Amino acid sequence: MTALPPLREVIARHGLDARRSLGQHFLLDSNLTARIVRLAGDLSGRHVIEVGPGPGGLTRALLASDAASVTAVEIDPRAVAAIEELLPDARGRLQVMAADAMNVDLASVAEPPRQVVANLPYNIASPLLVRWLRQAAAFERLTLMFQQEVAERICAPPGRGEYGRLSVLTQWTCDVAIVLRIPPAAFVPPPKVWSAVVRLMPRVEQPDAGLFSSMERVTAAAFGQRRKMLRGALKDLGGEALLHAAGIASHRRAETLTVREFEALARTT
After folding, report:
1. Is residue 2 in a domain?
2. Do 111 and 241 fall into the same domain?
3. Do both 151 and 108 map to the same domain?
4. What are the pLDDT digits (tens) for 218-236?
5. Residue 96 near residue 117, CB atoms below 8 Å
6. What's the pLDDT at 1?
7. Tens digit of each residue's pLDDT (9 = 90 or more) over 33-79
8. 260 touches 236 (CB < 8 A)
9. Cα(first)–Cα(last) distance of the chain, in Å?
10. N or C: which end of the chain has fewer CB within 10 A?
C-alpha cells in the first residue's frame, strides 16, 4: 500500500468531527489498530467485516494484514467518503457499504470463513452484539471493542454485579475474553471511560432461532426485576411451575443462576 495521508488530515478534509449521536470515538494510533488486528488471529484467507470504520484507522490495519477481503459498513456519509479513498490501493480487497449496521445481515455481505473486527459505535454496541449472537455460527471469530463497562458485563461470571442478560446470551453462544484495555486518551475525541477489546469465539453447537428467542425472553424477565426472587420475576412466564420444571429453587435471584441453568429455563418455556 502506498503512503497514506495522516488520519487527522482525512478527518479535517471530510469534516469528520466525531458525533455523539453516532457514538463516534476515533482510534488514530496505528500501533493500537495493528495490535487489535493481531488479536484477531491469523486472517489469511478470511473475509473480514468492520462496522463503524470512521476515518479508517482500523481499516488500514486490516488491509495491511493477509485478510482476503475487508467489508466496511458505515452509516455516516462523511466516513464513507473517507474510506472510499482507500479503494485505489486496496487492489480489489475492500468493499464499502453505506448502510446502518442494525439493518444489515452481516453473514450475507462476506463469504466464509468470515470474521468481524470492529471498534463499535458506543450507542448501538450492545444491540449489535445481540443481533450477531443470533447467528453466531456464521462467524469464525468476533474481535470487538466496547466501553470497558460493557466488556466487563459481557465477560462477568454469575454472582458479580456486572453479570446480566448480556453476559448470559454471550457466554451461552461464545467463549469470551477481554484481550486489551485502551485508555480514553487514545481516542479522538477522548471518551469519559476506558474501552476494552473482547474476543468472542462462537461455540461449535449453537441454539436454533426458537431457543434463542426463549432465552432472550427468560433473561429479559429475570434481569428486568433482578431484586426479585425468580418466582416473582418470572411470574408471566410460568413462575413457580417453570422453575420447578427446570429444577431451580424459586427463591433464587437471577444473578445467581449459571448460563446452563438459564438454558434449562429457556428449554422449559
Report:
1. no
2. no
3. yes
4. 999 999 988 899 999 999 9
5. no
6. 55
7. 999 999 999 999 999 999 999 999 999 999 999 999 999 999 999 99
8. no
9. 54
10. N
Query: What global pTM score does this model have?
Result: 0.95
CA 181 to chain CA centroid, nearest Å:
15
Only one residue has cell 496505528, namely: 30
Query: Is 3 buried (19+), middle (13-18) or exposed (0-12) by CB count in 10 A?
Result: exposed
Tell me the pLDDT tens digit for each residue of 147-204. Answer: 999 999 999 999 999 999 999 999 999 999 999 999 999 999 999 999 999 999 999 9
